[in-house]
Amino acid sequence: MKLDIRLPLGLLFSIFGLLLGIFGLAGNKTVYERSLGININLWWGMAMLLFGAVMITLGRRGERQPVSAADSAAVVPAGKGAADGG
Asked: Whole-model pTM?
């Protein structure tokens, strides 16, 4: 059973990061006066979106099938073929 938590986790963080970033862009700017003018929703939205993208990338990279031993034995380096005598 192949259970890879990175794909759903990446999707979840990407969606929430996108929503939080949009809220940070479209929200009321007076809310951020208490946080020294830093748009914390926008910054954390971007961080969550980046983390989600990394998780999706790593999850997709992990889906690839590794080369089996039988396949790697079939590839013979140049000059080492059966015609050379071993």
From this structure: 0.67
Residue 30: left if φ>0, alpha if ψ -120 to 50, beta else—which one?
Answer: alpha
Rounded Cα distance, 51 and 20, in Å:
14
Per the rule left: phi > 0, alpha: psi between -120 and 50, beta: everything else, 16 is alpha
- Alpha-helical runs (H) found in the chain: 6-26, 40-62, 69-74
Alpha carbon 81 to its chain centroid, in Å, reads 41
Q: Could you read off the pLDDT of 28-74 as tens digits, one per residue?
A: 888 888 888 888 999 999 999 999 999 999 998 877 766 666 666 66
